[in-house]
Protein backbone atom coordinates (compact mmCIF):
# COMPACT_ATOMS: atom_id res chain seq x y z
CA UNK A 1 0.00 0.00 0.00
CA UNK A 2 1.29 3.43 -0.80
CA UNK A 3 1.09 5.58 2.22
CA UNK A 4 0.48 8.78 0.40
CA UNK A 5 -0.32 10.64 3.60
CA UNK A 6 3.34 10.30 4.48
CA UNK A 7 4.64 11.45 1.13
CA UNK A 8 7.89 13.28 1.33
CA UNK A 9 7.99 16.79 0.18
CA UNK A 10 11.07 18.07 -1.57
CA UNK A 11 11.90 20.42 1.23
CA UNK A 12 12.22 17.73 3.84
CA UNK A 13 13.38 14.66 1.97
CA UNK A 14 16.07 12.73 3.80
CA UNK A 15 18.75 13.12 1.15
CA UNK A 16 19.09 16.83 0.54
CA UNK A 17 22.26 16.43 -1.50
CA UNK A 18 20.96 15.62 -4.95
CA UNK A 19 22.68 12.71 -6.61
CA UNK A 20 26.31 13.27 -7.32
CA UNK A 21 26.30 16.73 -5.75
CA UNK A 22 27.17 15.19 -2.39
CA UNK A 23 30.81 15.60 -3.31
CA UNK A 24 30.71 18.49 -0.86
CA UNK A 25 31.15 15.87 1.87
CA UNK A 26 34.28 14.08 0.78
CA UNK A 27 34.84 12.46 4.17
CA UNK A 28 31.43 10.86 4.16
CA UNK A 29 31.87 9.79 0.57
CA UNK A 30 34.93 7.82 1.67
CA UNK A 31 32.79 5.45 3.69
CA UNK A 32 29.18 5.81 2.59
CA UNK A 33 29.76 3.53 -0.42
CA UNK A 34 29.34 0.78 2.19
CA UNK A 35 25.60 1.42 2.42
CA UNK A 36 24.95 3.71 -0.54
CA UNK A 37 24.42 2.63 -4.12
CA UNK A 38 25.02 5.26 -6.77
CA UNK A 39 24.65 4.98 -10.51
CA UNK A 40 23.33 6.49 -13.67
CA UNK A 41 21.37 5.42 -16.72
CA UNK A 42 21.28 7.47 -19.95
CA UNK A 43 17.76 8.34 -21.11
CA UNK A 44 16.64 7.73 -24.68
CA UNK A 45 16.91 10.81 -26.92
CA UNK A 46 13.96 13.08 -26.34
CA UNK A 47 12.82 11.28 -23.17
CA UNK A 48 11.78 13.82 -20.55
CA UNK A 49 12.12 13.50 -16.76
CA UNK A 50 8.34 13.07 -16.47
CA UNK A 51 8.32 10.24 -19.02
CA UNK A 52 11.27 8.54 -17.32
CA UNK A 53 9.61 8.69 -13.89
CA UNK A 54 6.34 7.43 -15.39
CA UNK A 55 8.21 4.36 -16.56
CA UNK A 56 9.94 3.89 -13.22
CA UNK A 57 6.84 4.48 -11.12
CA UNK A 58 5.94 0.75 -10.75
CA UNK A 59 9.11 0.38 -8.65
CA UNK A 60 7.66 2.83 -6.15
CA UNK A 61 4.15 1.41 -6.06
CA UNK A 62 5.34 -1.56 -4.01
CA UNK A 63 3.80 -1.95 -0.53
CA UNK A 64 5.56 0.01 2.20
CA UNK A 65 6.88 2.60 -0.25
CA UNK A 66 6.13 6.30 -0.25
CA UNK A 67 7.52 8.63 -2.89
CA UNK A 68 7.33 12.13 -4.20
CA UNK A 69 7.94 13.51 -7.66
CA UNK A 70 8.90 17.14 -8.11
CA UNK A 71 10.12 18.19 -11.53
CA UNK A 72 13.31 16.37 -12.35
CA UNK A 73 13.61 14.75 -8.92
CA UNK A 74 12.01 11.70 -7.33
CA UNK A 75 12.57 10.84 -3.68
CA UNK A 76 11.36 7.73 -1.93
CA UNK A 77 11.37 5.91 1.39
CA UNK A 78 10.58 2.29 2.08
CA UNK A 79 9.60 0.43 5.22
CA UNK A 80 9.03 -3.31 5.79
CA UNK A 81 9.82 -4.01 2.16
CA UNK A 82 8.35 -7.22 0.78
CA UNK A 83 10.84 -10.00 0.17
CA UNK A 84 10.13 -9.91 -3.57
CA UNK A 85 10.16 -6.11 -3.88
CA UNK A 86 12.67 -5.42 -6.67
CA UNK A 87 14.14 -2.67 -4.49
CA UNK A 88 13.84 -4.56 -1.20
CA UNK A 89 17.36 -3.72 -0.01
CA UNK A 90 16.84 0.06 -0.29
CA UNK A 91 15.32 2.18 2.45
CA UNK A 92 15.47 5.66 0.94
CA UNK A 93 16.89 7.39 -2.05
CA UNK A 94 16.76 10.06 -4.65
CA UNK A 95 16.62 9.89 -8.44
CA UNK A 96 17.34 12.95 -10.54
CA UNK A 97 17.32 13.61 -14.28
CA UNK A 98 20.18 15.80 -15.50
CA UNK A 99 20.36 17.49 -18.85
CA UNK A 100 23.87 17.25 -20.27
CA UNK A 101 25.31 18.13 -23.61
CA UNK A 102 25.26 14.48 -24.65
CA UNK A 103 21.59 14.04 -23.62
CA UNK A 104 19.59 13.41 -20.47
CA UNK A 105 20.92 11.20 -17.71
CA UNK A 106 19.14 9.62 -14.74
CA UNK A 107 21.34 9.65 -11.66
CA UNK A 108 20.39 7.86 -8.48
CA UNK A 109 21.66 7.52 -4.96
CA UNK A 110 20.04 4.99 -2.64
CA UNK A 111 20.68 3.98 0.93
CA UNK A 112 20.50 0.38 2.12
CA UNK A 113 20.43 -0.65 5.77
CA UNK A 114 20.67 -4.27 4.63
CA UNK A 115 24.08 -3.60 3.06
CA UNK A 116 25.26 -1.82 6.20
CA UNK A 117 23.97 -4.66 8.36
CA UNK A 118 25.76 -7.26 6.25
CA UNK A 119 28.95 -5.17 6.34
CA UNK A 120 28.81 -5.04 10.15
CA UNK A 121 27.70 -8.67 10.62
CA UNK A 122 31.29 -10.05 10.47
CA UNK A 123 32.22 -7.76 13.36
CA UNK A 124 29.24 -9.04 15.33
CA UNK A 125 30.24 -12.66 14.79
CA UNK A 126 33.88 -11.95 15.65
CA UNK A 127 32.54 -10.38 18.85
CA UNK A 128 30.51 -13.55 19.52
CA UNK A 129 33.68 -15.60 19.00
CA UNK A 130 35.57 -13.40 21.43
CA UNK A 131 32.71 -13.65 23.92
CA UNK A 132 32.85 -17.45 23.74
CA UNK A 133 36.62 -17.37 24.30
CA UNK A 134 36.23 -14.83 27.10
CA UNK A 135 33.60 -16.85 28.95
CA UNK A 136 35.83 -19.93 28.64
CA UNK A 137 38.71 -18.00 30.18
CA UNK A 138 36.53 -16.58 32.93
CA UNK A 139 35.34 -20.04 33.86
CA UNK A 140 38.92 -21.24 34.02
CA UNK A 141 40.00 -24.86 34.19
CA UNK A 142 37.63 -27.27 35.93
CA UNK A 143 37.93 -27.48 39.70
CA UNK A 144 39.01 -30.67 41.46
CA UNK A 145 35.39 -31.53 42.25
CA UNK A 146 34.35 -31.05 38.60
CA UNK A 147 37.26 -33.19 37.44
CA UNK A 148 36.25 -35.93 39.83
CA UNK A 149 32.68 -35.78 38.55
CA UNK A 150 33.90 -35.95 34.95
CA UNK A 151 36.05 -38.97 35.71
CA UNK A 152 33.20 -40.72 37.47
CA UNK A 153 31.01 -40.09 34.47
CA UNK A 154 33.65 -41.47 32.16
CA UNK A 155 33.98 -44.61 34.26
CA UNK A 156 30.22 -45.05 34.22
CA UNK A 157 30.21 -44.69 30.43
CA UNK A 158 32.89 -47.35 30.16
CA UNK A 159 31.00 -49.70 32.45
CA UNK A 160 27.82 -49.50 30.38
CA UNK A 161 27.00 -52.59 28.38
CA UNK A 162 26.87 -51.46 24.79
CA UNK A 163 25.95 -54.42 22.69
CA UNK A 164 23.79 -54.36 19.63
CA UNK A 165 20.37 -55.95 19.52
CA UNK A 166 20.46 -59.38 17.76
CA UNK A 167 18.50 -57.90 14.81
CA UNK A 168 21.21 -55.29 14.25
CA UNK A 169 23.93 -57.93 14.65
CA UNK A 170 22.17 -60.06 12.04
CA UNK A 171 21.87 -57.11 9.66
CA UNK A 172 25.58 -56.39 10.05
CA UNK A 173 25.66 -52.97 11.78
CA UNK A 174 29.13 -52.25 13.25
CA UNK A 175 29.29 -52.99 16.98
CA UNK A 176 29.73 -49.97 19.26
CA UNK A 177 33.29 -49.43 20.46
CA UNK A 178 34.38 -48.77 23.98
CA UNK A 179 35.63 -45.20 24.35
CA UNK A 180 39.27 -45.16 23.24
CA UNK A 181 42.04 -42.88 24.31
CA UNK A 182 43.01 -41.75 20.86
CA UNK A 183 44.84 -38.55 19.95
CA UNK A 184 41.66 -36.59 19.33
CA UNK A 185 40.04 -37.40 22.64
CA UNK A 186 43.31 -36.52 24.37
CA UNK A 187 43.25 -33.15 22.63
CA UNK A 188 39.66 -32.64 23.69
CA UNK A 189 40.53 -33.45 27.28
CA UNK A 190 43.35 -30.95 27.11
CA UNK A 191 41.00 -28.27 25.78
CA UNK A 192 38.55 -29.01 28.56
CA UNK A 193 41.30 -28.71 31.11
CA UNK A 194 42.20 -25.32 29.71
CA UNK A 195 38.62 -24.27 30.15
CA UNK A 196 37.63 -23.97 26.45
CA UNK A 197 34.34 -25.76 26.79
CA UNK A 198 33.04 -24.21 23.58
CA UNK A 199 34.80 -23.49 20.36
CA UNK A 200 34.58 -20.04 18.74
CA UNK A 201 35.31 -21.53 15.29
CA UNK A 202 31.71 -21.42 14.04
CA UNK A 203 31.47 -17.73 14.97
CA UNK A 204 34.57 -16.98 12.89
CA UNK A 205 33.25 -19.09 9.98
CA UNK A 206 30.08 -17.00 9.97
CA UNK A 207 32.13 -13.79 10.12
CA UNK A 208 33.92 -14.85 6.92
CA UNK A 209 30.64 -15.95 5.35
CA UNK A 210 29.06 -12.54 5.93
CA UNK A 211 32.14 -10.74 4.61
CA UNK A 212 31.80 -12.76 1.38
CA UNK A 213 28.04 -12.16 1.29
CA UNK A 214 28.63 -8.42 1.66
CA UNK A 215 31.01 -8.40 -1.31
CA UNK A 216 28.56 -10.40 -3.41
CA UNK A 217 25.58 -8.24 -2.40
CA UNK A 218 27.37 -4.92 -2.92
CA UNK A 219 28.28 -5.86 -6.50
CA UNK A 220 25.17 -7.87 -7.37
CA UNK A 221 22.53 -5.46 -6.07
CA UNK A 222 24.35 -2.48 -7.63
CA UNK A 223 24.26 -4.16 -11.03
CA UNK A 224 20.73 -5.55 -10.66
CA UNK A 225 19.13 -2.16 -9.96
CA UNK A 226 21.04 -0.56 -12.83
CA UNK A 227 19.86 -3.27 -15.22
CA UNK A 228 16.29 -3.02 -13.93
CA UNK A 229 16.15 0.77 -14.29
CA UNK A 230 17.76 0.56 -17.74
CA UNK A 231 15.23 -2.05 -18.91
CA UNK A 232 12.26 -0.13 -17.58
CA UNK A 233 13.42 3.10 -19.20
CA UNK A 234 13.99 1.52 -22.59
CA UNK A 235 10.94 -0.79 -22.73
CA UNK B 1 -13.73 -15.95 0.12
CA UNK B 2 -15.77 -18.94 1.29
CA UNK B 3 -13.06 -21.28 2.41
CA UNK B 4 -13.21 -25.06 2.55
CA UNK B 5 -14.78 -27.07 5.35
CA UNK B 6 -12.27 -29.45 6.95
CA UNK B 7 -13.94 -31.33 9.81
CA UNK B 8 -15.48 -28.67 12.02
CA UNK B 9 -13.36 -25.88 10.65
CA UNK B 10 -13.46 -23.60 7.62
CA UNK B 11 -9.99 -23.14 6.17
CA UNK B 12 -9.15 -20.39 3.69
CA UNK B 13 -11.92 -17.90 4.48
CA UNK B 14 -9.38 -15.08 4.97
CA UNK B 15 -6.65 -15.90 2.45
CA UNK B 16 -6.33 -18.29 -0.49
CA UNK B 17 -5.24 -21.85 0.31
CA UNK B 18 -5.35 -25.12 -1.60
CA UNK B 19 -6.99 -27.98 0.29
CA UNK B 20 -6.71 -31.66 -0.68
CA UNK B 21 -3.82 -33.45 -2.39
CA UNK B 22 -5.79 -33.77 -5.64
CA UNK B 23 -5.70 -29.96 -5.95
CA UNK B 24 -1.99 -29.52 -5.27
CA UNK B 25 -0.04 -28.99 -8.54
CA UNK B 26 2.47 -31.62 -9.67
CA UNK B 27 6.00 -31.23 -10.99
CA UNK B 28 6.03 -29.94 -14.57
CA UNK B 29 8.63 -30.96 -17.15
CA UNK B 30 10.18 -33.96 -18.87
CA UNK B 31 10.33 -37.56 -17.61
CA UNK B 32 13.79 -37.18 -16.01
CA UNK B 33 12.72 -34.12 -14.03
CA UNK B 34 9.50 -35.87 -13.00
CA UNK B 35 11.48 -38.93 -11.90
CA UNK B 36 14.04 -36.94 -9.91
CA UNK B 37 11.49 -34.80 -8.08
CA UNK B 38 9.27 -37.82 -7.35
CA UNK B 39 11.91 -40.11 -5.84
CA UNK B 40 14.42 -37.61 -4.44
CA UNK B 41 12.99 -37.44 -0.91
CA UNK B 42 12.61 -41.21 -0.24
CA UNK B 43 15.93 -41.96 -1.98
CA UNK B 44 17.78 -39.50 0.28
CA UNK B 45 16.00 -40.80 3.39
CA UNK B 46 16.84 -44.46 2.71
CA UNK B 47 20.40 -43.60 1.65
CA UNK B 48 20.91 -41.69 4.92
CA UNK B 49 19.52 -44.58 6.98
CA UNK B 50 21.78 -47.09 5.15
CA UNK B 51 24.82 -44.85 5.54
CA UNK B 52 24.41 -44.25 9.27
CA UNK B 53 23.43 -47.85 9.92
CA UNK B 54 26.51 -49.33 8.27
CA UNK B 55 29.14 -46.57 8.47
CA UNK B 56 32.25 -47.73 10.38
CA UNK B 57 32.68 -46.21 13.84
CA UNK B 58 35.55 -44.05 12.60
CA UNK B 59 33.13 -42.25 10.23
CA UNK B 60 29.91 -42.40 12.25
CA UNK B 61 30.46 -39.29 14.36
CA UNK B 62 28.91 -35.88 14.87
CA UNK B 63 31.39 -33.99 12.68
CA UNK B 64 30.44 -36.19 9.69
CA UNK B 65 26.77 -35.44 10.39
CA UNK B 66 27.43 -31.68 10.44
CA UNK B 67 29.37 -31.90 7.16
CA UNK B 68 26.62 -33.93 5.46
CA UNK B 69 24.00 -31.52 6.81
CA UNK B 70 25.74 -28.47 5.32
CA UNK B 71 26.40 -30.18 1.95
CA UNK B 72 22.77 -31.34 1.79
CA UNK B 73 21.49 -27.81 2.42
CA UNK B 74 23.71 -26.45 -0.35
CA UNK B 75 22.27 -29.09 -2.70
CA UNK B 76 18.73 -28.13 -1.69
CA UNK B 77 19.50 -24.45 -2.30
CA UNK B 78 20.46 -25.45 -5.85
CA UNK B 79 17.19 -27.37 -6.20
CA UNK B 80 15.30 -24.21 -5.18
CA UNK B 81 16.72 -22.56 -8.29
CA UNK B 82 16.06 -25.55 -10.55
CA UNK B 83 12.49 -26.31 -9.57
CA UNK B 84 10.88 -23.65 -7.36
CA UNK B 85 7.46 -24.36 -5.92
CA UNK B 86 6.49 -20.69 -6.28
CA UNK B 87 8.31 -17.91 -8.15
CA UNK B 88 7.10 -15.60 -5.38
CA UNK B 89 9.26 -17.46 -2.86
CA UNK B 90 12.53 -17.14 -4.72
CA UNK B 91 15.56 -16.53 -2.56
CA UNK B 92 16.97 -13.01 -2.84
CA UNK B 93 20.26 -11.70 -1.49
CA UNK B 94 18.53 -9.93 1.38
CA UNK B 95 16.48 -13.01 2.33
CA UNK B 96 19.62 -15.13 2.19
CA UNK B 97 21.50 -12.73 4.49
CA UNK B 98 18.60 -12.56 6.95
CA UNK B 99 18.19 -16.35 7.08
CA UNK B 100 21.92 -16.94 7.50
CA UNK B 101 22.05 -14.41 10.31
CA UNK B 102 19.65 -16.58 12.29
CA UNK B 103 21.49 -19.77 11.33
CA UNK B 104 24.65 -18.05 12.63
CA UNK B 105 22.94 -17.14 15.91
CA UNK B 106 21.94 -20.78 16.30
CA UNK B 107 25.50 -22.01 15.85
CA UNK B 108 27.04 -19.43 18.19
CA UNK B 109 25.18 -17.48 20.85
CA UNK B 110 22.12 -19.72 21.16
CA UNK B 111 24.34 -22.77 21.25
CA UNK B 112 26.29 -21.20 24.09
CA UNK B 113 23.13 -20.33 26.03
CA UNK B 114 21.89 -23.90 25.53
CA UNK B 115 25.12 -25.19 27.04
CA UNK B 116 24.33 -23.38 30.26
CA UNK B 117 20.54 -23.45 30.57
CA UNK B 118 19.39 -25.84 27.80
CA UNK B 119 17.10 -28.82 28.35
CA UNK B 120 19.94 -31.32 28.72
CA UNK B 121 21.60 -29.21 31.42
CA UNK B 122 18.32 -28.85 33.32
CA UNK B 123 17.60 -32.58 33.07
CA UNK B 124 21.12 -33.47 34.13
CA UNK B 125 20.72 -31.25 37.18
CA UNK B 126 17.35 -32.81 37.99
CA UNK B 127 18.67 -36.33 37.67
CA UNK B 128 21.68 -35.54 39.83
CA UNK B 129 19.62 -33.92 42.59
CA UNK B 130 17.00 -36.68 42.72
CA UNK B 131 19.58 -39.40 42.16
CA UNK B 132 17.78 -40.70 39.09
CA UNK B 133 19.51 -42.88 36.56
CA UNK B 134 18.86 -42.60 32.85
CA UNK B 135 16.51 -45.08 31.24
CA UNK B 136 19.48 -47.10 30.05
CA UNK B 137 17.49 -50.16 28.88
CA UNK B 138 16.79 -48.14 25.73
CA UNK B 139 20.29 -49.00 24.51
CA UNK B 140 19.28 -52.66 24.21
CA UNK B 141 16.58 -51.94 21.62
CA UNK B 142 17.19 -52.30 17.86
CA UNK B 143 18.97 -49.23 16.45
CA UNK B 144 16.08 -48.06 14.29
CA UNK B 145 13.63 -48.42 17.17
CA UNK B 146 15.94 -46.28 19.32
CA UNK B 147 16.24 -43.72 16.51
CA UNK B 148 12.46 -43.59 16.10
CA UNK B 149 12.03 -43.25 19.89
CA UNK B 150 14.46 -40.32 20.02
CA UNK B 151 12.64 -38.57 17.19
CA UNK B 152 9.16 -39.34 18.43
CA UNK B 153 9.81 -38.27 22.02
CA UNK B 154 11.24 -34.95 20.80
CA UNK B 155 8.56 -34.38 18.18
CA UNK B 156 5.74 -35.22 20.56
CA UNK B 157 7.06 -32.63 23.00
CA UNK B 158 7.58 -30.16 20.21
CA UNK B 159 4.03 -30.69 18.95
CA UNK B 160 2.60 -29.63 22.30
CA UNK B 161 5.07 -26.79 22.76
CA UNK B 162 4.20 -25.52 19.27
CA UNK B 163 0.47 -25.94 19.82
CA UNK B 164 0.88 -24.18 23.14
CA UNK B 165 2.58 -21.32 21.35
CA UNK B 166 -0.51 -20.91 19.18
CA UNK B 167 -2.85 -21.01 22.13
CA UNK B 168 -1.24 -19.16 25.03
CA UNK B 169 -0.52 -15.48 24.52
CA UNK B 170 2.89 -15.21 26.26
CA UNK B 171 4.22 -18.12 24.20
CA UNK B 172 2.53 -16.81 21.07
CA UNK B 173 4.39 -13.50 21.48
CA UNK B 174 7.70 -15.32 21.06
CA UNK B 175 6.50 -17.56 18.22
CA UNK B 176 4.59 -14.90 16.25
CA UNK B 177 7.85 -13.49 14.89
CA UNK B 178 8.48 -16.74 12.97
CA UNK B 179 5.02 -16.37 11.42
CA UNK B 180 5.98 -13.06 9.83
CA UNK B 181 8.13 -14.88 7.24
CA UNK B 182 6.50 -14.40 3.86
CA UNK B 183 8.14 -17.21 1.93
CA UNK B 184 9.68 -20.61 2.61
CA UNK B 185 13.36 -21.22 1.88
CA UNK B 186 15.82 -23.76 3.15
CA UNK B 187 17.06 -21.74 6.13
CA UNK B 188 13.75 -20.13 7.12
CA UNK B 189 13.31 -22.61 9.96
CA UNK B 190 16.05 -20.74 11.81
CA UNK B 191 14.24 -17.40 11.62
CA UNK B 192 12.53 -16.37 14.83
CA UNK B 193 12.94 -14.55 18.08
CA UNK B 194 15.81 -16.12 20.08
CA UNK B 195 13.50 -16.75 23.06
CA UNK B 196 11.28 -18.92 20.87
CA UNK B 197 14.24 -20.69 19.32
CA UNK B 198 15.36 -21.60 22.83
CA UNK B 199 11.89 -22.78 23.89
CA UNK B 200 11.24 -24.89 20.79
CA UNK B 201 14.55 -26.68 21.38
CA UNK B 202 13.47 -27.97 24.80
CA UNK B 203 12.93 -31.71 25.01
CA UNK B 204 13.10 -34.60 27.44
CA UNK B 205 15.44 -36.75 25.33
CA UNK B 206 18.13 -36.21 27.96
CA UNK B 207 16.26 -38.55 30.31
CA UNK B 208 17.07 -41.53 28.11
CA UNK B 209 20.26 -43.29 27.21
CA UNK B 210 20.80 -44.21 23.59
CA UNK B 211 23.61 -45.70 21.56
CA UNK B 212 25.56 -42.94 19.76
CA UNK B 213 24.76 -44.55 16.40
CA UNK B 214 21.03 -44.42 17.21
CA UNK B 215 21.31 -40.70 17.97
CA UNK B 216 23.13 -40.14 14.67
CA UNK B 217 20.47 -42.16 12.84
CA UNK B 218 17.76 -40.08 14.50
CA UNK B 219 19.53 -36.88 13.49
CA UNK B 220 19.86 -38.06 9.90
CA UNK B 221 16.21 -39.17 9.66
CA UNK B 222 15.04 -35.95 11.32
CA UNK B 223 17.07 -33.90 8.85
CA UNK B 224 15.96 -35.94 5.81
CA UNK B 225 12.33 -35.34 6.73
CA UNK B 226 12.26 -32.02 8.59
CA UNK B 227 14.40 -30.10 6.12
CA UNK B 228 11.48 -30.01 3.65
CA UNK B 229 9.29 -28.02 6.03
CA UNK B 230 10.81 -24.76 4.85
CA UNK B 231 11.86 -25.19 1.24
CA UNK B 232 10.86 -23.69 -2.08
CA UNK B 233 10.96 -26.85 -4.19
CA UNK B 234 8.05 -28.58 -5.90
CA UNK B 235 8.14 -32.37 -5.27
CA UNK B 236 5.71 -35.12 -6.19
CA UNK B 237 5.95 -36.40 -2.64
CA UNK B 238 4.72 -40.03 -2.33
CA UNK B 239 1.36 -40.51 -0.60
CA UNK B 240 2.83 -42.67 2.22
CA UNK B 241 5.36 -39.93 2.99
CA UNK B 242 2.68 -37.24 3.11
CA UNK B 243 0.64 -39.46 5.44
CA UNK B 244 3.51 -39.99 7.89
CA UNK B 245 5.75 -36.95 7.60
CA UNK B 246 5.43 -33.20 7.64
CA UNK B 247 5.93 -31.67 4.18
CA UNK B 248 6.39 -28.24 2.62
CA UNK B 249 2.71 -28.39 1.69
CA UNK B 250 1.60 -28.95 5.30
CA UNK B 251 3.95 -26.31 6.62
CA UNK B 252 3.01 -23.72 4.01
CA UNK B 253 -0.59 -24.04 5.19
CA UNK B 254 0.64 -23.57 8.74
CA UNK B 255 2.29 -20.31 7.63
CA UNK B 256 -0.67 -19.16 5.53
CA UNK B 257 -2.19 -15.71 5.92
CA UNK B 258 -5.42 -17.53 6.77
CA UNK B 259 -5.75 -17.64 10.56
CA UNK B 260 -7.59 -20.95 10.74
CA UNK B 261 -5.01 -22.62 8.47
CA UNK B 262 -2.19 -21.58 10.80
CA UNK B 263 -3.83 -23.58 13.55
CA UNK B 264 -2.93 -26.87 11.92
CA UNK B 265 0.13 -29.06 11.20
CA UNK B 266 2.08 -28.36 14.39
CA UNK B 267 4.40 -31.39 14.41
CA UNK B 268 7.91 -30.93 13.16
CA UNK B 269 8.73 -34.37 11.74
CA UNK B 270 5.75 -36.70 12.11
CA UNK B 271 2.53 -35.25 10.72
CA UNK B 272 0.74 -38.35 12.02
CA UNK B 273 0.89 -36.73 15.47
CA UNK B 274 -1.35 -34.01 14.04
CA UNK B 275 -3.56 -36.71 12.53
CA UNK B 276 -3.79 -38.34 15.99
CA UNK B 277 -4.97 -35.10 17.60
CA UNK B 278 -7.14 -33.85 14.73
CA UNK B 279 -5.05 -30.84 13.77
CA UNK B 280 -3.76 -32.09 10.39
CA UNK B 281 -4.91 -30.34 7.21
CA UNK B 282 -3.59 -31.60 3.85
CA UNK B 283 -2.96 -28.88 1.29
CA UNK B 284 -0.73 -25.92 0.56
CA UNK B 285 -0.63 -22.11 0.52
CA UNK B 286 1.39 -19.54 -1.39
CA UNK B 287 0.47 -16.34 0.44
CA UNK B 288 2.23 -16.50 3.79
CA UNK B 289 2.74 -14.27 6.79
CA UNK B 290 0.88 -12.01 9.15
CA UNK B 291 -0.81 -8.62 8.76
CA UNK B 292 -1.41 -9.25 5.06
CA UNK B 293 2.18 -10.33 4.44
CA UNK B 294 4.11 -7.49 6.10
CA UNK B 295 7.80 -8.36 6.23
CA UNK B 296 9.44 -7.76 9.59
CA UNK B 297 12.94 -6.34 9.86
CA UNK B 298 15.52 -8.14 12.00
CA UNK B 299 15.39 -5.31 14.53
CA UNK B 300 11.66 -5.74 14.96
CA UNK B 301 12.00 -9.53 15.07
CA UNK B 302 14.32 -9.13 18.04
CA UNK B 303 12.14 -6.70 19.98
CA UNK B 304 8.57 -7.59 18.91
CA UNK B 305 7.65 -10.06 21.72
CA UNK B 306 8.79 -7.56 24.34
CA UNK B 307 7.26 -4.42 22.80
CA UNK B 308 3.98 -6.22 22.05
CA UNK B 309 3.96 -7.74 25.52
CA UNK B 310 4.54 -4.31 27.03
CA UNK B 311 1.74 -2.78 24.95
CA UNK B 312 -0.62 -5.53 26.06
CA UNK B 313 0.35 -5.10 29.71
CA UNK B 314 -0.26 -1.36 29.42
CA UNK B 315 -3.59 -1.94 27.78
CA UNK B 316 -4.57 -4.38 30.50
CA UNK B 317 -3.22 -2.63 33.56
CA UNK B 318 -2.61 0.94 32.37
CA UNK B 319 -5.05 3.78 32.98
CA UNK B 320 -5.33 5.26 29.50
CA UNK B 321 -6.51 2.22 27.58
CA UNK B 322 -8.26 0.45 30.39
CA UNK B 323 -11.14 -0.74 28.23
CA UNK B 324 -8.96 -2.43 25.61
CA UNK B 325 -8.91 -6.20 25.78
CA UNK B 326 -5.94 -8.28 26.85
CA UNK B 327 -5.44 -9.83 23.49
CA UNK B 328 -4.60 -8.19 20.21
CA UNK B 329 -5.93 -9.21 16.84
CA UNK B 330 -3.40 -11.95 16.49
CA UNK B 331 -4.43 -13.70 19.68
CA UNK B 332 -5.64 -17.17 18.77
CA UNK B 333 -8.92 -18.52 20.01
CA UNK B 334 -9.02 -21.66 22.10
CA UNK B 335 -7.76 -24.91 20.63
CA UNK B 336 -10.27 -26.62 18.43
Short description:
Chain A has 235 residues and is α+β, with helices and mostly antiparallel strands. Chain A folds into two domains: 126 residues, TATA-Binding Protein, CATH 3.30.310; 92 residues, no CATH class. Chain A is 47% helix and 16% strand.
Q: Key terms for this structure?
A:
heterodimer, A: 235 residues, alpha+beta, TATA-Binding Protein, 2 domains, five-stranded antiparallel beta sheet, disordered N terminus, B: 336 residues, two-stranded antiparallel sheet, 4 strands, 53% helix
What report would you give on this structure?
The complex is a heterodimer of chains A (235) and B (336). With 235 residues, chain A is of the alpha+beta class. Chain A has helices at 26-32, 49-56, 113-139, 144-159, 166-171, 183-194, 201-234, and strands spanning 36-42, 65-70, 73-78, 92-100, 103-111. Chain A has a 5-stranded antiparallel β-sheet with strand order 1-5-4-3-2, covered by helices on one side. The radius of gyration of chain A is 29 Å and the shape is elongated. Chain B is an all-alpha fold and 336 residues long. Chain B is built from 14 helices and 4 strands. Chain A binds chain B through residues 63-64, 80-84, 88-89, 114, 117-118, 121, 125, 128-129, 131-132, 135, 160-165, 167-168, 171-174, 176-177, 197-198, 202-203, 206, 209-210, 213, 216-217, 220-221, and chain B through 53-57, 60, 88, 90, 92-97, 100-101, 103-104, 107-109, 111-112, 115, 136, 139-143, 182-183, 209, 211-213, 293-298.
Amino acid sequence: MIDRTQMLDTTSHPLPDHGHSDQSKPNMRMIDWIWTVRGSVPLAPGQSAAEAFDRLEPFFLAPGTSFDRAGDTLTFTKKDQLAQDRMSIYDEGILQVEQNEGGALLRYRMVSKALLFCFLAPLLFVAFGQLIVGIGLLEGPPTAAEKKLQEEKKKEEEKKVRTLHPIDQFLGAPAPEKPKKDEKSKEKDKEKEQGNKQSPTSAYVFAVLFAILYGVGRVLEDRLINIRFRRSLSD
Amino acid sequence: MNGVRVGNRVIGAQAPVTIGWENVPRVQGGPIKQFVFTYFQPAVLFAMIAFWYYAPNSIAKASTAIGIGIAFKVLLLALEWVNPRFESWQLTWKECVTDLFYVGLGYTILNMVDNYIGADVILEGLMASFDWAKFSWFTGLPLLVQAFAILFIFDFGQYWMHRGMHNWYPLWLTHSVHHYITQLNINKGAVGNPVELFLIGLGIGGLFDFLPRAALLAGAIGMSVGVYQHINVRFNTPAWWRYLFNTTEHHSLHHSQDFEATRSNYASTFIFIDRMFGTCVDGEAELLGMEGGRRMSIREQMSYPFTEGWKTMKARFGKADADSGLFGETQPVRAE
